[in-house]
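ugh ok fine here u go
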Amino acid sequence: MSDSTGLIKGNAVIGQSGGPTAVINQSVVGCVEALRESPMINQILGAHHAVRGMVDEDFIPLKDIPQDRLDRFANTPSSGLGSSRDKPDAEYCERIFKSLEKHDVRYFFYIGGNDSSDTCRIVNETAKAAGYEMRCFHIPKTIDNDLQCNDHTPGFGSAANFVASAFIGDNLDNRALPGIKLNIVMGRHAGFLTAAAVLGRQNPEDGPHLIYCPEAAFDEQKFLTDVETVYKKHGRCLIAISEGISDADGTPIAVKLAQQQGHHLEKDSHGNVQLSGSGAMGDFLSKHIKNNLGAKLRVRADTFGYVQRCMAPCVSKVDQAEARAAGRKAAEVALAGNFDGSITINRVSDDPYKVEYGVADLKDIAALTRHLPDEWIIDGNNISDEFVKYARPLVGDLPTVEML
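structure:
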């Protein structure tokens, strides 16, 4: 039954997809808070482990959870409903739709990155083809910060806070016991998170001294020259490197060095070379440095990996507020009569910092990647002040240190 605005009364489902973040539960709560205010929503169902829970009809009732529990849930990092790495095709999305139709779901909200927006798009098209009225909305989430039509995305600010904080600490370690230190940061195609390492510099001599993002072609010889130059100047060198760096031909450096050193890299469930779950890249680059600049050099490497995503002490207050507002916005536009779209966050001013929320077409987000602007990368190994200005309000407070 529809009301005067044409809305159909029914159930709503919310799912969390892909890699967890420190603020993704905020988006769930924002969506729930807005939905339960409407008489058109019967039940609000949380999909347990995302699309897998939908096809298995594994749902968590959300509508009657007390507000104090919702607030604690919102402030809890990671995907509280459970996530999934499934990448649904048309046949999988048909199964999702059949399950949602069976449960009288008329409002579908999916929180995730560009793959998740593509799932939302396919489910939306499947429902339309079946003549079934269902409003489908993608709510942005990704620490990679790589969604089109957005200034930034929920999850990035908190992960960037962790990266910057980690480099502040590692710079002190590297200063106390000088050597060459590499930290591998998440980012297969977009370098925003690796670029955030620049926020760790509090003094001119601080590291990271070199920063390499996937948007700039990585030259192995230039890298060695860069490292040698910094090491001669400072007696040490701290380096931030994106896991996704590639050469000018597009060959991932992890693959190239593995082949040179006689190793084999595993692939993930999507067929991509596994980067985040392994310390291989750091090991390969460390060996590359020692082989070419001197076997006696003190060279160490760490891979930040999954720890970047959900560090509770590094949660940004701006990130929390915007994640919750994005979830609420999705519910509001669906209940205003809109049928589908992806919620966007765009900056309208820097001083004071202010954003506005909008709605983009799913096709303009789905399966597309936004990259770190070329003008924010200096000489392939550094990050500009323009990026610092862009990132500071998103990241929030960082540790301060004092040296004697």
